[in-house]
Amino acid sequence: MKKWFAVIGDPIAQSKSPEMHTSWYENDGIDAAFIPIQVKKEELEKAVDSLKLLGVSGFCVTIPHKQSIIQYLDEIDETARLMGAVNTVVRLQNGKLKGYNTDGDGFVRSLEEVIGEEHRDQSVLIIGAGGAARGIAFALKNQGYENITVSNRTVSKAHDLVDALGIGKAISNDEASETLNQYKILIQTTSAGMIYGDTDLPFSIDDMSTEAIAADIVYNPLMTPFLQHASNIGATIVTGIGMFVHQGAIAYEHWLGHYPNTKAMIEKLTENVK
Ligand code: ATR
């Protein structure tokens, strides 16, 4: 039987997942379809039951369902449970639906594709303490990054994050701004800078080191104000495209058993959003 996959969210029209996965099926000779489905918040439970009934092989979950979907799944992977968020659902042999979170690992693969593994002992600053920051912090910790600091507008949330994961320390955005040049790897996880022409950043980044490695999780625009500044001063940049592609590739591997070609996909999508 032909396999079919989906991505559910609201809005969904902007999602690049269908294009990405369909292109991988073509490259890998897999007979499958990938469908974007708009699911309103109040219809999530019905949608999950319907997907299950109709025999979906797996699906991606995006805003605003990443947290709320947990209650409707049969099993949750340990990492996703700790994150409190699911972005990938796999239909198991017995028909049950299991939730995973591939965002954090996707980020680390994207980062290390650019900078290698030799910076794991360097100081890392994660800006933001939301769901994305939590996944990234956990994945970095698991890969052996030892020196992680989390800054957030609401400092109590940064404290909650470092306490929950048992990592590094929490600071305010003001403190981060003042000590910015002490960090080698800077990871921007807030939604600031997502909108074209929006130059609002969580705080001043004038003191960024020229030796820094600056990564953003936002990929539209590709060059966020944060990355633009980093690029202007000659720092290394890691765009959000890599994280998007690798989180999808890890999902693909869960569903189909092998890792797709991420390099060509990153190049293609980078060209498209430029
Ligand atoms: P996600 O799951 O995508 O990480 P989230 O959980 O809503 O989204 O988290 C958003 C993050 O962006 C938070 O760290 C938030 O800071 P607060 O916890 O103080 O709300 C941060 N954020 C969003 N807009 C911001 C802004 N204009 N300035 C500073 N931080 C901002």
UniProtKB/TrEMBL annotation:
Q: Known catalysed reaction(s)?
A: shikimate + NADP(+) = 3-dehydroshikimate + NADPH + H(+)
From the UniProt record, give the pathway where this protein acts: Metabolic intermediate biosynthesis; chorismate biosynthesis; chorismate from D-erythrose 4-phosphate and phosphoenolpyruvate: step 4/7
Q: Name one GO molecular function term.
A: shikimate 3-dehydrogenase (NADP+) activity
Put simply, this protein is called: Shikimate dehydrogenase (NADP(+))
Q: Which GO terms fall under biological process for this protein?
A: amino acid biosynthetic process; aromatic amino acid family biosynthetic process; chorismate biosynthetic process; shikimate metabolic process
Highest taxon above the source species: Bacteria
How this chain assembles, per its entry, is: Homodimer.
